[in-house]
Design a protein that fits this description.
Pfam families: Peptidase_M2. This protein is mostly helical. It is 56% helix and 4% strand. Bound molecules: 2-acetamido-2-deoxy-beta-D-glucopyranose (NAG) (7 copies) and zinc ion (ZN).
Length: 636
Amino acid sequence: MWSFVLLLVIFPAVSTAHGGGDHHQELITDLNQAREFLASYNESLSVLEYEATLAGWEFSTNISDHNEQKEVEANLVYAAFINEAGQNASRFDDTTFPDDVRRRLSKIRDIGTAALDSAKVEELNELINSMTDNYSTGTVCRPENASVCLQLEPGLTRVMANSRDWNELVWAWEGFRDRVGVPNKPLYARYIELSNEAARLNGYPDTGAYWRSYYEVEDLVGQAYKLYNDILPLYKQLHAYVRGIMHKTHGDKVDIKGRIPSNLLGDMWGRFWGNIYKQVLPYPDTPDIDVTDTMVAKGFTPLRMFQLADDFFASCGLKRVNQKFWNYSMLEKPSDGREVVCHPSAWDMGNEQDVRIKMCTEVNMEYFQIVHHEMGHIQYYLQYADLPTSFRDGANRAFHEAVGEVITLSVATPTHLSHPDVGLLNDTMGEVDSQETDINFLLKTSLNTIGTLPFSLALEQWRWDAFAGTVEQGKWNERWWQLKHDLVGVKAPVDRTEEDFEPGAMFHILVDYSFLRYFIRTIIQFQFHKGLCDAAGHTGPLHRCDIYKSTAAGDKLAHMLKLGSSKPWPDAMEAITGQRSMSADAINDYFAPLMTWLEETNRKNGETIGWDSGGVVYSMSLTLLLACMLVATYAV
Ligand SMILES: *[C@@H]1O[C@H](CO)[C@@H](O)[C@H](O)[C@H]1NC(C)=O
Ligand SMILES: *[C@@H]1O[C@H](CO)[C@@H](O)[C@H](O)[C@H]1NC(C)=O
Ligand SMILES: *[C@@H]1O[C@H](CO)[C@@H](O)[C@H](O)[C@H]1NC(C)=O
Ligand SMILES: *[C@@H]1O[C@H](CO)[C@@H](O)[C@H](O)[C@H]1NC(C)=O
Ligand SMILES: *[C@@H]1O[C@H](CO)[C@@H](O)[C@H](O)[C@H]1NC(C)=O
Ligand SMILES: *[C@@H]1O[C@H](CO)[C@@H](O)[C@H](O)[C@H]1NC(C)=O
Ligand SMILES: *[C@@H]1O[C@H](CO)[C@@H](O)[C@H](O)[C@H]1NC(C)=O
Ligand SMILES: [Zn+2]
C-alpha cells in the first residue's frame, strides 16, 4: 500500500532497549563504534526508505493489485531492516555518549510495527490497504437514479459543502457511512489487535499510550483537556451562533437548545466548518473575503495556486520547491481512469532531493488554504533535509501540522488577498479595512480552527479508549456518539446503532494516523503566529498580521524548522515564541474581538449557550517515555 503504511511500519515505539536485547552479550560502550553504526544506518536507510516510499507513492497515485503487491513487498524489506537496526542499536550502553548520539540511538530503537513478525506486518499492511480502498473507491448512488453514483471526492464532498437540502445531506452522510464505515468494521477490529500487539512488543500497554509518548510531556491528556476547557467558552459561543442559523434554515431538525446535527457542518464528518461560511456570514454587504468566485473568474488553476504558495514562502526568504517537485507531484485528480487516494498529503521520499504533494486540487479558497498547509510540510522537509535521517521529522507531530497553517493565517487576511501580487480582493465593493470585514474574517477563520478543536479531541479520545479496551467492541459506536454529544455538542442526523461504524468512514482512523496532532497544532499555530508577527514588527490586532515579505519572520521560522526532531519540542517552541509550553492565550487573544461580537449577537438573538452535557469522564494513567518517530508522509 502507500506511504501511510510505510509510516506504520516505522512507527517506532520505545524500545527493545528496555525489554529486548541479548542478555549474554556485552553492551558496547565505545563511542566510535556507535558513530560508525549511525553513519551506516543513515546511508542504508536513505536507500530503503526511498524505495518503500516510492512504492507507496505508485500505489496511492494508481490503485491496483499489482501496485499494492509491490508496495507490501517493499515495506516488508523495510520493516526487516528497521527491526534489525533496532536490535543493533540496543547493543550499545549509551549512558556516557553525547546527547545527540543518545537521541539518535533511541529513535532507532523505536521500531513500531516492525516489531511484529513479517506475516503480521504483511497482514496489517493489507488490512489498511483494504480499508483505504473501500474509503477511496466507495460510491453512493442517487435514490432517484441508481446509475448516478458519487465517490467521496469530488462528488460527495461537494454535496456536503454546498447543499442546503436536509434530505440530500442525510443521503450523502448516511450513504457514505453505510458504504465505507460498515464494511471496514471487521477489518478495523483486527487492526486494533495487531497494532496493540506491536505497541506491547515495544514496551507500551497499547497503541494509544504509544502515540501519546511522542509528545515527551507529562500528563499530555490532562494538558489537552485543559486547553479544551480554555477554548470552550469561545467554542460554545460559535456553536450557539451556528446552531441559531441552522435552526432558521432547517426548522425542527435543529433543536435550538441542543446539539447540532453533524451533516450540517460543511464536510462529511463535521470536522472543518469552513464551507458553511456563506450561510453564517455576519455582514454580507462587505467585500467577499471568500475569494472562490474571484479565483474562478480570474482563471486560477491548481498549478497557479501552488505557485502562489511557493512565492509566499520565497518572499520570507524561505525555500522554494525544486523542479522535481513540479515534475513528480500529483496536483490534480487524474482523468485517465486511474483510481487514486485523493486525501491531500505531502511526501518526503526519504531522499532530500525528492519531495512531492498528492492531492485532487479544486479551484476554491478551501483548497487554496490546503495547498498552503501541504506546502508547509514540504518546507519543513526542505529545511531539515541536511539532518541525519533519524532527526528528519517535526519537533513533534503537531509542529509539522502547524507550519502551513501559520502561513495560511497570513495568506487569508483581507490585506494579503488584496495585495497586488495576489489580486484576489479589492475595495471596489467597499472598505477592506473595516471592522465589519474584521468580524467576517475572524468568523471565517474560527470555523476551521475553533470549530474543529473539540472534534479533534473527541476523535482521539475514542481511539485511546478503543486501543486501551476501556470500551468494548460491542459499544464502539455508542462511545463515539457519547463523546460527540458531550465534547463537541453535535449529534447524528438519523438514528444510529452498533450495526453502524462511524470511525470506519474517517480517513485518519483507517490509515493508522494519530490525530491529537491536529488538536495541538490548532492551539500552537497561534503561538507561532504571534512569535512571527512580533519578529515582523507587526503592530495592531494580531488577526491583521501578514508576514508576507518579512525575512525576519522567515528567518525565525527557518531556525525552528532546521532543528527537525533533534531537540525536544520545547526548544523548538522557544526558538519561535520564547515560551516552552502550549498555551491557549494566543488563540484566545487572536479571537478576542470575535468573542465580544458573538456574545453580543447571541445575547441579542436570545440564544442559549451550550448544550445539555452529561459531563465527560476520563481517566488514564500514562507511561511517558522518551520516544519520537521518523515520518515520511504528512496529510491534511
Ligand atoms: C498504473 O499501474 C499499472 C500497473 O498496475 C501500470 O500498468 C500502469 O501503467 C500505471 N498507470 C500509470 C498512469 O502510471
Ligand atoms: C546489525 O549488525 C550486524 C552485525 O554487526 C550487521 O551484520 C548488520 O548489517 C546490522 N544491521 C543493521 C540493519 O544495522
Ligand atoms: C440517470 O442518469 C443517467 C446518467 O446521468 C441518465 O443518462 C439517465 O437519463 C438518468 N435516468 C433518469 C430516469 O433520470
Ligand atoms: C472492503 O471491506 C471488506 C470487508 O468488509 C473487504 O473484504 C474488501 O476487500 C474491502 N474492499 C476493498 C475494495 O478493498
Ligand atoms: C522535469 O521535466 C522536464 C520536462 O519533462 C525535464 O526536461 C527535466 O529534466 C525534469 N527535471 C527533473 C529534475 O526531473
Ligand atoms: C545521511 O545519508 C545521506 C544520504 O546518503 C547523506 O546525504 C547525508 O549526508 C547523511 N547524513 C549524515 C549525518 O550522515
Ligand atoms: C476589482 O474587482 C472588480 C470586481 O471583481 C473587478 O472588476 C476589477 O477589475 C478589480 N480591480 C482590480 C484593480 O483588480
Ligand atoms: Zn498535514
